[in-house]
Amino acid sequence: MKNRTLNSLISLFIIFSFNVYPATTRTLDAPNKGDSKEKYGGQLVLSTIADPKSFNPIVSKEANVSAIMGLIFEGLTTTNAVTTDVEPHLAKSWQISEDGYTYTFFLREDVKWFDGKEFTSDDVVFTFNQLIYNPDIPTSARDIFTIAGNQLKVEKVDKFTVKFTLPVKFAPFLRSMGHEILPKHILEDVVKKGEFNSFWGLDADLKGIIGTGPFKLLRYEPAERIVFEKNPDYWKSSKEGDGLPYIDKIIYIIVQNQDVGLLKFQEGQLDYYSLRGQDFPILKPKEKEGNFTVYNTGPAFGTNYLVFNQNRDINPQTNKPYVDPIKLKWFSNKKFRKAIAHSIDKQSIINIVMNGLGFPQDSAMSPSSGFFYNPNVTKYDYDIEKAKAILKEAGIYDRNNDGEAEDEEGNNIEFNFFTNTGNTDRIEIAKIVRSDLERLGFKINFVPLAFNQIANKLDATFDWDMIMLGLTGGIEPHFGNNVWQSSGQLHMWYPRQKKPATEWEAEINRIFDQGVQELDNNRRKALYDRWQEIVADELPFIYTVLPASIFAVRNKFGNLNPTPYGGAFHNLEEIYIKK
What we know:
single chain, D-Maltodextrin-Binding Protein, domain 2, Dipeptide-binding Protein, domain 3, 6-stranded mixed sheet, 5-stranded antiparallel sheet
């Protein structure tokens, strides 16, 4: 399970239905170890356009960190990337009480941390009670595992048995148990000393980052590469009984932008490349010559959006508002945001930037999400004149015919616009957006920044006006709770509210509190349909376009089974390099 994270790459997901298992047990059998020597060895070379901010998966909110840490840390359950069913992982089985409030997990007894220590129920209890539920640790996971203000009760039964008692029904509970478990014996003293939030930073001893996953961090060279080596004592085996993983090393090359990534893929330095629309006519005809295959799995399944800073709080360092009150008046006016929505030329963006390989986005979920996606939300056609008319209703128009719009107090409409460097498509989209906003008489100061700088603005300084970014998607709406709850860590337009600033935010809070407790899928869908309608009407995020999820992979891998939900390497530990 992953809670929603800031991203620069978007994933895809598909239709699914929840499986509820009252008073049942799910198990995963362990096959005998085998030895297929011809499958072992070699390396997989990938790329990323940003250095990690940290190697701490609990405090990180960035998608590139989540991807990296997913090689190292594991959860009690996992989601099958082919069927999207929940399956056992670090837990070999579980039982659910008749009333559905108690889940008892029976842990695997053959799992070791990288340092050889046993994985036990103590680690599970520690992760929840001392990390996730620790109020001194700023983690988005707490938003996911807090339902209507209530926390789960997590208790050790014995060395390999742990019990979760739910305060209310929690529909996606089993899927949520994919959250990473961290080692108590490494981190308990760190937490007691109050040093956890800065622990496992970029200056950490990589050998001290201890997980249970198939790969270990071997080397980090800032702005150059991140190297992983296989965990030779990994607990998982193939169906044939082979010890996993097969591949010896995974290397992430840190590239400045997507253009550099494309060049390195063409030169054979990368094994995988996520295509932009403009790359498709370049790479598709070269599949045979380059010995790779291009896969198109449909609409990406995250979201891309514009967001305005509506933070009403005072900066305790300066005793001044985080947002200039003049700008806050604009940004918090729904008519202002509606005018912006009518100024997004989605079709031109798709045609010009994405080479036609894109999809307009209107809803808070991607069309690829299937069951919970609501297509019947308010849509905003591209119409500059309509946008100007809506702005005039809000008191913003060109009062003196100088080509510049002013508000009722005579202030020119001017603000900063940030997006992340490295994502060349996003920069080109931002240029189109800026051009259309200038047609409204606005002055837009467009500044691309490094992704980590933007993340810092959103998470710490709150020093920004408008940002264009994306969020990773998921097949479960509740895993966006850290974004949509008004108190959430990623409630970007106004995070960590002590109480909802608006009635519509309060309604979304109620929807997410109710939706997670509703076990009937149709009633859940009705709730989440309403959430998407509110978002489309109130426009805290102004959605833009989704690219097609297209990627190229070298034809050298065995056991490769790309899926819309999992992408190319969802079964990474099972993939091998053909001899």
